Amino acid sequence: MNKIGIKMESENFAMVAKTMYGFESILADEVKELGGKDIHSGNRAVSFQGNLELLYRMNYYSRLSLKIIKPIAEFNARDEQDLYDKTMGIDWSRIMSINQTFAIESTVHSSHFKHSHYVALKVKDAIADRFRKDVGRRPNVDPKNPHIKINVHISNNRVSLSLDSSGASLHKRGYRKGHGMASLSEVLAAGLIVLSGWDRKIPLIDPMCGSGTIVIEAALMANNIPPGSFFREYLFHNWPDFDSELYRKVISERKGDTTGNVQIIGSDSSKEQIRVARLNIRNAGLSDLILLKQKEFSKLLPPSPEGIIIMNPPYGERIQHDNLVELYKEIGNQLKKEYKGYKAYVFSAKPEALKFIGLHPSAKNILYNGEYKSLFQEYELYEGSRKV
Cystine design at 54: which of 50, 145, 200, 304 (Cβ 3.0–4.6 Å)? Predict the structure, then answer.
């Protein structure tokens, strides 16, 4: 029995959950909680063992995964012809039918294979030619909306072929209809909350909430609402071993009681950002669980003696700010003045701006927001807070 109380069924196989840099350890904890075994963290990925039930559960319940893939073959290849021959040697009829469309996605880190597009082309030809050899015709390719997607990963001469079980990235929850000027990925927002150690009991505030992603992800966590509960299709629905009854059982699970009336507050100085956040919160069905305010942070007062602040202030890349230094000084001044007893977490791709907060960070994590290397810093706010 796992923590959800469901007996795991069917034989185990290998899986890999892909994530963002810096989230590997917290994703490994999540995989363990959801029932994974033999867990190993890698670079932006966690590998583990589980069964079909766990594969469904990871797609539906994981807050920190971008994609769940199932390795199906691994071999060495000297060149493109060797890659073609060994791929064609696989019985692809066990993985897809002739009437299903497919697509190839490739990642190459090798001096033997220099062009990922050509690698994808060779694998595609090998699969199509195997079907033509076996049944006399080739399946169709659909790069946009395939029934089956095969991931090719080559490191030096080692080739891994995997089935993509997720399809669209799992960060696309489905609730976000409006976007702010620099919206955070849903997985990134969820990871920031997990890294903060929020216990889902004390108030959580995002005083620069933008489109509302952080407060929405917090409300989903606090009320045990699965990120997959906003309707979407997964590619595993197209697999020949898809078990609809098992899938229905998985999505009916819950992991415990909801937190209930914990305060989750989003605020922003922009009327337009608050409008977008309200739209997204309504789409997520969380209007009664999140309080929105249109206020400057300098005028936002804490709702209780203790709590947690998580913010992603502008940092001058996608959002321009007249005086970035003054903004970060104002953040530090307000934290020191009004938020004693709180823990504050600031996420920014401008490390040089963070120093103007004027507080000594008690912890920091290196993360990425897209291509931007970023810092996620913790500040413990005491009476007479410690300055740099």
Answer: 50
Res 257: pLDDT:
52
Residue written as token pair 């059982």? 249
Which tokens hold the place of 68?
A: 């769940």
Sheet holding 45-50, edge to edge: 37-41, 45-50, 13-18, 67-76, 158-164, 148-155, 102-109
Structure-token pair, residue 304: 């209780």
> What domains does the chain contain, in order, with CATH numbers?
13-164 (3.30.2130.30), 186-223+258-380 (3.40.50.150)
Predicted local confidence at residue 259, as pLDDT: 54
**Residues 129-177: tens digit of each pLDDT:** 999 999 999 999 999 999 999 999 999 999 999 999 999 999 999 998 8
Return the axis-axis angle of helices 271-283 and 213-222, rounded to nearest 10°. Answer: 30
Whole-number Å distance between alpha carbons of 128 and 108: 21
What pLDDT, on the 0 to 100 scale, is given for residue 324?
85
Angle at which helix 213-222 crosses helix 186-196, to 10 degrees, equals: 60
**Alpha-carbon distances of 1 from 7, 18, 36, 256, 364, rounded to whole Å:** 5, 25, 12, 15, 36
Q: SS3 string of the chain?
A: CCCCCCCCCCCCEEEEEECCCCCHHHHHHHHHHHCCEEEEECCCEEEEEECHHHHHHHHHHCCCCCEEEEEEEEEECCCHHHHHHHHHCCCHHHCCCCCCCEEEEEEEECCCCCCHHHHHHHHHHHHHHHHHHHHCCCCCECCCCCCEEEEEEEECCEEEEEEECCCCCCCCCCCCCCCCCCCCCHHHHHHHHHHHCCCCCCCEEECCCCCCHHHHHHHHHHCCCCHHHCCCCCHHHHCCCCCHHHHHHHHCCCCCCCCCCCCEEEEECCHHHHHHHHHHHHHCCCCCCCEEEECCHHHCCCCCCCEEEEECCCCCCCCCCCCHHHHHHHHHHHHHHHCCCEEEEEEECCHHHHHHHCCCCCEEEEEEECCEEEEEEEEECCCCCCCC
Query: What is the pLDDT at residue 371?
Result: 87
Q: Which residue has the tokens 């699970």?
A: 253
Ranges under pLDDT 50 in the chain = 1-9, 318-319, 385-388
